[in-house]
UniProtKB/TrEMBL annotation, chains A, B, C, D:
Keywords: DNA-binding, Transcription, Transcription regulation. It comes from the Bacteria. Residues 21-80 form the HTH tetR-type domain. InterPro entries: Homeodomain-like_sf, HTH-type_TetR-like_transc_reg, HTH_TetR, Tet_transcr_reg_TetR-rel_C_sf, TetR_SbtR-like_C. The lineage of its organism: Bacteria, Bacillati, Actinomycetota, Actinomycetes, Micrococcales. Transmembrane segments: none annotated. Residues 43-62 bind DNA. This is TetR/AcrR family transcriptional regulator. The keyword tRNA-binding does not apply. PROSITE patterns: HTH_TETR_2.
Length: 197, 197, 197, 197
DNA sequence: CATGAATGAGGCTTCATTCAT
DNA sequence: AATGAATGAAGCCTCATTCAT
């Protein structure tokens, strides 16, 4: 009996948590889409309507806008950082750097406006910068160091500079037909420039 | 009598025209300063207050925000385009390209947010893109062509790509201590990348 | 079997009743504390969090805010009314009146905002006024009548007036450093004024 | 000509200022009425609708709620303070004190909820407290000192305490049929209490 | 032409209350 | 009976834009 009751209790709690998680997920998905379309400053309503939820729900789970942005990026930032490890052992230093930057481009370029958020001075975005600093910067630094050690690149571009420069190059300019393809090409040129630093 | 009246009329008109021009100038100067400080989306009041004029005056001369931005950039865009000519004859092709890009960086980097405006899909900014296309693109194209002909660069980066890529690299990222100095360094790396395209 | 089932049923019911009472008690205690700190309009969450319960539980037991306020005050109102009886026989009339008012001050002054609720025109607070009328007013009236009969006070201040006047004097004015000590002193002056009415 | 132009200029400015002043006045009148009916926390819309103006106009002239409250009270506070002077010379000390308090009651009692604002700890209301401190407190202090000197009152109730105590006694309690008449009577009792302090 | 007061749409955010589990 | 996630109305405030003077 006691066991059964406890199970029921657990079941209930888990169920609620599952529903809430579904909503959180829906909000993140919706936010990702809306961010890509209208930028990270899009009205909250646009996001909640797309998710089929009330604004209150958004504010419950993501009190500040930065929390939502961070929520959208978190996993991808971590995955990207982890990927660097694999690439270091799989490829020659400069090739690994190139390959990893390509992956980083996917992360940043496919989210219109996130690059913008990344650049905000608003203290609310601290978490975002921290995450980048903690996870992405060491990854980039390691790849740069490898390539340096192998004599494949010169100059003194830091990991931080690389990340933000590539982030900037990944913003689309719709009015000038400057899109993802152009972003990629420009990043390639930039990475090429590291060799002749 | 008639003559006198006409003179009076003319005098007034001329006076007004002169006054109006003074105001337009004051607004452009003020806008340039405010854009640099608070970005191109700064409240209209910030600009008119700094110019010591009323908001109505701003709207009379620059009905849409894009008109004001274009007004601010116009002269500098033209000057920058004209400078290319001088550089072509004065320096070796790649050196000329580098030097001109440096000048272009001054144009874009010193106006926080203008780069952003340059990238907006808002149809209101058409005029801006047109100006860039008409004046800057030919200048950049000529310099690129020279360098290509001299075998100093390879690859197929277009003038338009060069302009927008450099424009993107010129945005500051205050939260990451990524400022004008970094902008310049990153542009250098990018231009270096043109050689190894 | 039947008996066993009934017993189980009763057991559960009793258990629930006991738990529910515990919750009601926890909510009243928490509400008392929160009312004292943040006033009677404090967010429901503040109360439930402090009680370690869900908001739903609060609404089950106290559907309207007034129900909660009444719940908090009920016992104290009754105790205060009962105290009047003891005081009447223990002390000289005016002294008894003073002593009782002091006790009433404790009731009202230590619950920031309750005085305010007491004064609301909101029909939801009817119950509160009723309780005051039914329990406190007769007590105050008796003490006033005694003092009158003894010739220790004059004037025609009614029991109701006394109660509400003292209630008003018991509100703190934080911005003016006007707190409980001042409340007490002002009430003393007021009660002194009854003599010279 | 120059003179005529300047006059026109002045006329225009004055005209605009006059219109704006009319609006400011309308807002203050409306606010006074709304404050009296719904308290000083009434929605901004209620005030602007009653004044026939847009919310923006309210915020232009009274950016913070406290500014509006202060605007409503300012003149009356000053007038009340000035009246004290006349009373000191016209009447016997205690009589003057009584008369002045009666006038103060008119100031506070006829504005439901202003008393509440007077008591807020919100830093936005500093201006209000300051005004009371600067204007009303000296007036009350002088009257109290006179009465003390004349031996007509005893005790050590300060000017500040008098002001806030009377302010508190002037709040109506609609649900208990405790209105302006009762406010006045209770204040009388309180002032009577100063004699027997 | 210049002015700046007025407008009000639009976005943000909080919190009382409901209700599925 | 308890829970707390979800809801959305309601109020706040800003600012682009208009328009009477």
């Amino acid at each position: 009996m006691t066991t059964a009751e406890q199970r029921t209790g657990e079941g209930r709690q888990r169920r609620r948590r599952v529903d809430a998680e579904r909503n959180v997920h829906a909000l993140l998905e919706s936010a990702k889409a809306v961010f890509a379309r209208s930028g990270v400053d899009a009205p909250a309503r646009e996001i909640t309507d797309a998710a089929g939820l009330g604004v209150g729900t958004l504010y419950r789970h993501f009190p500040r806008r930065a929390d939502l942005i961070l929520g959208v990026l978190q996993h991808e930032i971590d995955a990207c950082a982890d990927a660097a490890l694999a690439m270091r052992s799989d490829e020659a230093p400069y090739a690994a750097l190139r390959a990893w930057v390509e992956q980083y481009v996917e992360l940043v370029a496919t989210k219109r406006g996130l690059a913008g958020a990344l650049h905000s001075a608003d203290p609310a975005f601290e978490g975002l910068h921290d995450r980048v600093t903690e996870r992405l910067e060491p990854a980039a630094a390691a790849l740069l160091a490898d390539a340096h050690a192998a004599g494949e690149i010169t100059g003194d571009v830091s990991a931080r500079e690389l990340l933000y420069a590539v982030g900037l190059l990944c913003q689309p300019v719709p009015a000038a037909d400057f899109g993802l393809a152009e972003n990629r090409r420009m990043v390639e040129v930039f990475v090429g420039g590291l060799r002749s630093g």
